[in-house]
Amino acid sequence: MSLFYTELLARLCSLAKPFPSVIGQLCGQCEEWLLTRPEPILIPKCSFLRQPGGALQYTLTGLQGGVLCVDLNVEAELLVAGSDGGVVAVWSLSDHQLVHSLLGHTGAVLCVKVVDSAANCLSVAADGSLRRWSLVNGQQLLCIKEAIPVDPAPSSVHIHLSEQLIFIYTRTQVKVWQLDGGEVLSNTNADGSVVLGVLGESVVSMCNSGLVRISQPINGTQTVETRLENCQRSVTLSKSVNLPKRGKVFFVSKEGFLYQISLKGRHMAVKFPLVPSLLSVNEDENILVAGSDRTLSLFNIDGDSVDRFLELQHDDSVLSACVSSDCRVLASGAADQLIRIWSATTGALLDTLSGSDSPVTSVLLCHGFVLSASKADASVRLWSLKYDLRHKPTATIPAGCAHVAVTEDADRVFYVRQQSQTTVLSWNNNTGHFKERD
Questions:
Q1: Which helix (H) or strand (E) holds 256?
Q2: Which end of the chain is more exposed for a tag (fewer CB within 10 A), N or C?
Q3: WD repeats at which positions (predicted)?
Q4: Smallest Cα–Cα separation from 42: which of 27, 51, 31?
Q5: Regarding beta strands 295-302 and 287-292, do their DSSP bridges make them parallel or antiparallel, or are they unpaired?
Q6: Of all helices (H) and strands (E), which one includes residue 28?
Q7: Given this model, what pLDDT does residue 96 score?
Q8: What pLDDT score was predicted for residue 192?
Q9: Dist. CA 141–CA 139, nearest whole Å
Q10: Distance between CA atoms of 174 and 168, rounded to whole angstroms?
């Protein structure tokens, strides 16, 4: 019985103030009962169980291991995710149920993509295989082995589809197949060049000397060869992103330049203020998102000009970001296990969503919801952007902190997120507020 009263109080105490007439009285009765017990009992001072309401609406399960990649088809309301356990899961967003668990890969799933108007999906895994799956019945339709290197497996893999072809590319290799699986081309860049991207059926690659090649591998023609500006010695790729609607590839070099390369070979370079670990564009390709350490920067793309208009600061490393389809809202995920919701026009922090319990490595925005996932968690979470703020849980310290110390009265907790950090954070148990101490 003591356990029942303890868990009831722990789950509901955060709602005592917003709803004093019912929940407040119930929590008071629980506290009174616990105080009358003769045996020692730990009485909760805050909610350590997830309370009802709040932004978190659904937790989608069915994977084994952390979530490495996700893809979403808005029209069909299907979400596909691949895990480091080799499973591809498919959920329906209309009823939030698991539709298929696609089994066959023997290595971590590195990339997934919904294709054919959501009738099928493609997946590439660290076992080297490319597989096509039916999203109607969950059957495997195609398996191509040795699609990517396996020893070691690449850190990132990209799937690109043209009208007739499937391109699978890493930084050092491009392979092309017909849609039915017949291999057309296998090309490993023996000259040390890196693949920047694929536009249509053209592959954009670059040597470290700054020589860019734009070729059509199907007919073997090399359409463009040009040398980049501002590359007196060498150019080292940091991150790249395709802009298919504009017919361009953007990439940032570790030397601090942003390069724009068009299909016709026209290119330009400008100084870039950061070396990003995260680089993406929104659906309309008018906003470039770049993340470096604790800073997330947004750049307006207008013709050939790329101008920064927002700089969003975080408390820990930025790991993921997504701009809404109407360009009004941005969601970012960070290593501190928080999802931040920003105004993409003013830069105002609109909300902070806590409860992920692991670094947020993927975020997507869809119809007033945020979908989040982590490489350290086997579930996908759906958060509502429109919820009763009275149900917003008090912020808590992140899970898995390297060092934690609690004051004698348990009103304050001091912690260090990671072993390498020198900043001590303090968390007020009563208010949920944080402070930094060097």
A1: none
A2: C
A3: 60-101, 102-143, 311-352
A4: 31
A5: antiparallel
A6: helix 25-35
A7: 92
A8: 76
A9: 6
A10: 6
Q: Which residue has the tokens 């668990």?
A: 101
Hey, what domains does the chain have and what are their CATH numbers?
Answer: 1-52 (no CATH), 273-393 (2.130.10.10), 395-438 (no CATH)
Query: What pLDDT does residue 191 have?
Result: 67
Structure tokens at 105: 């890969």
Q: What is the pLDDT of residues 384-393, one digit of tens each?
A: 998 877 777 6
Tell me which H or E stretch contains 385: none
Q: Convert the pLDDT of each residue in 35-46 to its tens digit.
A: 888 887 777 666
**Cβ atoms 65, 108 nearer than 8 A:** yes
pLDDT of residue 420: 74
The three-state secondary structure class of 58 is: strand
343-351, Cβ contacts within 8 angstroms, sequence gap of 24 or more? 344/287, 344/298, 344/310, 347/310, 347/311, 347/312, 349/312, 351/55, 351/385
Query: Are the beta carbons of 87 and 102 closer than 8 angstroms?
Result: yes
Alpha-carbon torsion (349, 354, 356, 359), positive or negative: positive
Q: Which residues contact 360 (CB under 8 A, 6 or more apart)?
A: 319, 320, 333, 334, 337, 338, 339, 372, 373, 374
Q: In what order do the strands lie in the sheet with 211-216?
A: 194-199, 202-206, 211-216, 221-227
Using 50, 70 and 90 to split pLDDT, how confident is the model at 5? Answer: confident
Cβ burial of 94 (10 Å; 0-12, 13-18, 19+) is: exposed
Tell me how far apart the alpha carbons of residues 68 and 154 are, in angstroms, rounded to a whole number.
Answer: 13
- Label residues 267-299 b or e (16+ Cβ within 10 Å = b): bbbeebebbbebbbbbeebbbbbbbbeebbbbb
**Percent of the chain residues topping a pLDDT of 90:** 51
Residues near 409 by beta carbon (within 8 Å), at least 6 away in sequence? none
